[in-house]
Write a structure and sequence with these properties.
The chain is an alpha+beta fold. It folds into three domains: about 45 residues, no CATH class; about 220 residues, Enolpyruvate transferase domain (UDP-n-acetylglucosamine1-carboxyvinyl-transferase, Chain), CATH 3.65.10.10; about 210 residues, Enolpyruvate transferase domain (UDP-n-acetylglucosamine1-carboxyvinyl-transferase, Chain, Alpha-beta prism). Helices cover about 25% and strands about 30% of the residues. The chain contains twelve helices and 27 strands. The strands form seven sheets. A four-stranded mixed beta sheet has the order 25-26-4-27. Helix 2 packs parallel to helix 3, helix 4 runs parallel beside helix 5 and helix 7 runs parallel beside helix 11. The protein binds shikimate-3-phosphate. Shikimate-3-phosphate binds next to helix 5.
Length: about 500
């Protein structure tokens, strides 16, 4: 048997992130066989792709494991004592970078032949000083959660990432982590690369989140694990609660309570012994969002998305699309590893523009690029507010969405934290443009979906970052009928 390294027999180059930690090995049937460790490189290999109006999309899609839960399963597995097993781990570049970082800190992490992952954890406070720089590639979640996980262990570590991650704000985690006693030497503006000296005698803290951010909340909770006593995070708006759920799953004492002013206080008791667990990672709703919207927009489509996580802190997009007239049904609702999971059945629909309230933004914060695409095919104006956080994602997503949609012929306006899109109904978008992705996986996927329903093809300048969250996006979409080509027709 000979292995194909990083190749794709269907003619589409496999996406490579700016900082691959491992190269994928495929067998001749295109099955992922395993990984070959690579030295970290800053080379990018742009891979453009063009999407063309497609016939009805139909069939069943099982999207890869949830990215947020995958990071957390690796991190908590590494902080437990003994052997944790993870099924359905997302094998995207972001998560593989977290695995490489955890290995550099002393955890033993391996992919088994059956596709499950095994982690031999070092225990809370057990990380050893890494001999090399910790590279999180494109992943804000990986970097921020790991800064928290390391901040209360008395070791020094230098963190970096690709050009996109090195532009993103880290002060939002540095500030609370300094309160535990950690020290930071960061670039101007609190950016990566930075060196962290973990607290010797960590003190538990109480911290109110200045921004609705699950990453900041999680960094504080993970740091609190190795501080004696109770650490508290207070949030005004509910953000995704996977860290809290998974900490409980691993045996930590975590509680939450409503306090005055409509706020919620989340407490973690420090220095538990975490017990290794079996984690099943459900399908990522943020990845499911792309085929879901594609099926709504391409006339005659009928699609089933199996095993999608439907945690209410993540399901805002489905709620909004249903209100816009989307024919979306949930079947087989069930509980798996402490998360609500279901199958999502979608049929092509006539969508109506609407005003979307800012309060729902945290439950669909990653879905605005694809929602904006849906809005461009809806009838009437869609107004989205409360979007300041989109400015500091993998790219400035407000600017990238507006620029891409304008190039495709849509009328769009943006402000500091809002976006309006004028829609003219099904198949109304002109297309016929090349869209810049700015190292952002969700911008790339959103505009490839737009191309499936627009009048003229849409070319996306670089799909290499799609591998950070949805490495099987191109073949999965082709399998249900999407027309993606390497060149413009
Ligand atoms: C994530 C939280 C969100 C989200 C990101 C994943 C997480 O970021 O955008 O893709 O796993 O905690 P913020 O918490 O900064 O909004």
């Amino acid at each position: 048997m000979s292995w194909i390294v990083g190749g794709d027999l269907r003619g589409v180059p496999l996406p490579r992130s700016a900082a691959p930690v491992k190269e994928k090995l495929y067998d001749q049937n295109q099955r992922l066989h395993g990984y070959r460790h690579l030295s970290v490189t800053t080379d990018t290999v742009p891979s453009p792709l063009t999407a063309t109006a497609s016939g009805p999309l139909s069939g069943t899609v099982r999207v890869p494991g949830d990215k947020s839960i995958s990071h957390r399963a690796l991190i908590l597995g590494a902080l437990a004592v003994g052997k944790t097993r993870v099924d359905g781990l997302l094998e995207g570049d972001d998560v593989l970078a977290t695995a490489a970082v955890l290995r550099a800190l002393g955890a033993d992490i391996a992919r088994d032949k059956d596709g499950s992952w095994t982690i031999f954890g070092v225990g809370v406070g057990g990380f050893t000083e890494p001999a090399q720089v910790l590279d999180h590639g494109n992943s804000g979640t990986g970097a921020r959660l790991m800064l928290g996980a390391v901040a209360t262990t008395p070791i020094s570590a230098t963190f970096t990432g690709d050009a996109s991650l090195c532009r993103r704000p880290m002060r939002r985690v540095i500030e609370p982590l300094e309160m535990f006693g950690a020290e930071f030497h960061a670039r101007d503006g609190g950016r990566l690369p930075l060196t962290l000296k973990g607290a010797r005698m960590a003190m538990p803290i109480s911290y109110r989140l200045p921004v609705a951010s699950a990453q900041v909340k999680s960094a504080v909770l993970l740091a609190g694990l190795n501080a004696p006593g109770r650490t508290t995070v207070v949030e005004a708006q509910a953000t995704r609660d996977h860290t809290e759920r998974m900490l409980k799953h691993f045996g930590a004492t975590v509680s939450s309570e409503k306090i005055e002013g409509g706020l919620t206080a989340i407490h973690v008791e420090g220095q538990p012994e975490l017990a290794p667990q079996h984690v099943r990672v459900p399908g990522d709703p943020s990845s499911a969002a792309f085929p879901l919207v594609a099926a709504l927009l391409v006339s005659g489509s009928n699609l089933r998305l199996e095993g999608v996580m439907l945690n209410p802190t993540r399901s805002g997009l489905i709620t909004v699309l249903q209100r816009m007239g989307g024919n979306i049904a949930i079947e087989n609702l069930r509980e798996e590893s402490g998360e609500t999971v279901g199958d999502v059945v979608v049929r092509a629909s006539v969508l109506k523009g609407m005003e979307i309230e800012p309060e729902i933004a945290p439950s669909m914060i990653d879905e605005y690029p694809i929602l904006a695409v849906a809005a461009a095919f809806a009838e009437g104006r869609t107004i989205m507010r409360g979007l300041a956080e989109l400015r500091v994602k993998e790219s400035d997503r407000l600017a990238a969405i507006a620029d891409g949609l304008k190039r495709c012929g849509a009328k769009v306006e943006i402000g500091e934290d809002w976006l309006t899109v004028e829609g003219h109904g099904a198949n109304s978008l002109a297309g016929g443009a090349t869209v810049a992705t700015h190292m952002d996986h969700r911008i790339a996927m959103a505009f490839l979906i737009a191309g499936l329903a627009s009048k003229a093809p849409i070319k996306v300048d670089d799909t290499s970052f799609v591998a950070t969250s949805f490495p099987t996006f191109v073949p999965a979409m082709r399998q249900i009928g999407a027309l993606f080509q390497l060149k413009n027709r």
